[in-house]
Amino acid sequence: MKALQIPVVKLPKETEDLRREIRQFLNEEIESGGFEPKCDTWLSGFSEEFSRKMGSRGWIGMTWPKKYGGHERSTIERYVVTEEMLAAGAPVSAHWIADRQTGPLLLKFGKESQKQYFLPDIAKGECYFSIGLSEPNAGSDLAAIQSRAVKVENGWILNGSKIWTSGAHHAHYMITLCRTSPMDTTNRHAGMSQLLVDLSAPGVTIRPIHLMTGEHHFNEVFFEDVFIPNEMVVGEIGNGWAQGMAELAYERSGPERILSTFPLLNELSSILLKNEDDDGLNKVSRLISRLWTLRNMSLGIAQQIERGIPSTIIASLVKDMGTQFEQEVAEITRLLVSVIPSTDSPSRLERMLAQSILQSPGFSLRGGTTEILRGIVAKGVIGK
Ligand SMILES: Cc1cc2nc3c(=O)[nH]c(=O)nc-3n(C[C@H](O)[C@H](O)[C@H](O)COP(=O)(O)OP(=O)(O)OC[C@H]3O[C@@H](n4cnc5c(N)ncnc54)[C@H](O)[C@@H]3O)c2cc1C
Question: Hey, is 140 helix, strand or coil?
Fold first, then answer.
């Protein structure tokens, strides 16, 4: 068995000033009615205006080179920004995927022209991306995708469909994993490529998938003979699987895997304190100590990724434990206070509890299901 090791990160002094600056900005935004704090805002809290404000403060593309509109700050400083935004329940979903995933992907594999064209607009909070992986018959078994691009003069013709695509109705582009060669059953991961698809191009249709609440944040996306110019291919044709897996490392262990219900936990703590409910506070303090451990692990992985240390196994573990924690916050709140959760309630606690209960089944599905993550951890620890 291999031991899993992650460093303990000591936050540098300069992050304290940054944290103060962010909190001041967030308080001003809340007080002026700029946004209402909510749970799970990295996926469902959309505000172009808020993303632009973050862009103008230099809080998107923070670690990227200045020549592409970035700010050359550290991964840990970026972590402080993202955790403060999620803890406050700020509407960050417009730019989230582009900042977390698309930017780093293009920096690693993209063409120079793609970096120059996309990264400055992403960093301004003006250009949004979605993730085109899942298909109706390919979720956990991603290698089963059937969307297919065929070579033509100057580019590719894409046909197929994607499903559960968060934010595609707001996004400008999708990083789409598709087959560019027929499936080879002896090597199912070969022959896939990543294409940058302009979601306003002819042949692209986006249909909403409404949640039971009537809300809309994910979609089905159909491609019918969509022309993709050669300059919109990311990295190497045929290398899409390896590139896509590198992309997943950015998304599995960040603060969004432990803080989706933090605004609810915060609200619950204030109410229990006000009611002098010692038993309730005791249960909340256990949650907070778990959160502290998860956050230390998540920070340690952020640092490992920055140093190029492979972190897939430990990131999978953090996502598994983090999403269970997020779900338990909703469950424990429901047991500790006698309230009627409703998204329209005048009580903030009732609204946040409703948001958490409604979103929490998805926490352990999106970005890889719990069963799949445990498989990765088991194989990794045993070393096979
Ligand atoms: C809120 C939300 C947002 C999403 N956003 C996006 C997005 O933006 N882009 C995108 O591409 N996708 C997105 N997804 C899709 C998500 O990635 C898939 O739902 C996920 O990968 C699971 O695939 P599936 O739904 O096809 O389920 P399946 O793969 O069919 O799995 C069904 C069940 O079987 C279990 N299972 C499957 N295979 C195994 C196995 N080998 N061993 C043990 N158990 C197994 C799974 O754990 C699960 O419980 C989103 C999903 C949600 C819930």
Answer: coil
